[in-house]
Amino acid sequence: MELTLWQQWARLAEQAPEQEAICHWQEDRPEVRWRRAELLREATRAAAWLQSRGVRPGAVCALIVRHHPRFYPLYLGVVRLGAIPAVLAHPNARIHPDKYVDGLEGMSRRSGLDWVLTERDLEPVVGALVSRPGSSVRGLLLPLETEWPTCPEGTLALPQVDPAAPCLLQHSSGTTGLQKGVVLSHAAVLGHVRAYADAIDLRPTDRVVSWLPLYHDMGLIAAFHLALALGVPLVQLDPFQWVLAPGLLFEAIAREAGTLAWLPNFACSSTAASRSAATATSGSWRASGRPASAPTCSAPATPWPKPPSPPPRPRPAPRPGRSGWTGWRWPRAGWSRPPAPTPGSACPRAGPCRAAAWIWWPRTGANRGRAGWAKW
Q1: What is the pLDDT of residues 172-188, one digit of tens each?
Q2: Domain boundaries in the chain?
Q3: Integer distance in angstroms from the first to the last C-alpha of the chain?
Q4: Using the 8-state DSSP alphabet, how is residue 240 labeled?
Q5: CA of 332: how far to CAs of 103, 307, 362, 371, 376, in Å?
Q6: What are phi and psi of 60, to 5 degrees?
Q7: Which class in CATH covers the domain with range 5-200?
Q8: Contact at 8 Å (CB) between 50 and 141?
Q9: Could you give the strand order of the β-sheet that contains 139-141, starting from the edge strand earlier in sequence?
Q10: pTM for the complete prediction?
Q11: Which segments of the chain have a pLDDT < 70?
Q12: Nearest to 57 by CA among 140, 149, 153, 156
């Protein structure tokens, strides 16, 4: 019998209500742990609140939220209501607000976004989408700023949802200039994670640790939905904290006894200088999710060389040079640019290269003592 996502989550919660479902992990704050039954109760409250604000089954709800412990019940609440969640990237320092809103408007026009669920701090930027003429967005809601109402089990009418009906809207990253939307059904998502689980030999004792953003398909499907649908705990890190300190991944794996982590090749390169931490986690970690390339595997395990000293005047954002290499340092105060060598000179960890951007990982958090250059 085919099930919807909510029915699958409810079945698991009934079997083991106190089993941990999600650990919201942050370096500088205590972890927030959601157990299965508690997560679904809070999701039902979120669904009741959304329903009271006019959200109806079939509505496309864009979730633009930073790393927040209430994101998870909010996402599940959208699914519980029969609406369609679409996790989108939030505004950040790497993209100009006008360009960000233009991208949102393009997605709204092509995908038909109905509601935007976001945070108060992001409202000044995201709110511009609602006020633009011709926008399909009906309203902007701030669910994280509100206490959701108590909703006893059975009081919220559960819509009759077909497993073949849409359950989420996923967008591409926009590498080619246009972020393309794809609608996935409940049956498609459940079928995919089950096939993926067979391929990686998923075990009941596994524990997924992920830094990947949930607006990325690898983070949303391979980590988030895989863990929730098949009943293995998920440890979710803040992607922006990981960018500043890649060693956080190994720290989380060690502390939470993680066994599965998804690392694209660029992430393997970024964590090359933290291999001593990786060795410390080898007792539990058994798979990284994607094959690594030969250059990544052969990267030296020694710390990267010290970068040139940056000039005193900061620059707002990185822009790789046309030739030679450009090094970028990202201290707490913001971006700055060190003096660039002459064109054609050697990169810190490679031979002569062109139009390459390198980022300097600072000595912060779990990356203490492991600072160095990495390709961006």
Answers
A1: 776 666 677 889 999 99
A2: 5-200, 203-215+242-300+347-376
A3: 46
A4: H
A5: 28, 16, 9, 14, 18
A6: -90, 120
A7: alpha beta
A8: yes
A9: 84-87, 60-64, 115-118, 139-141
A10: 0.75
A11: 152-155, 174-178, 268-376
A12: 156
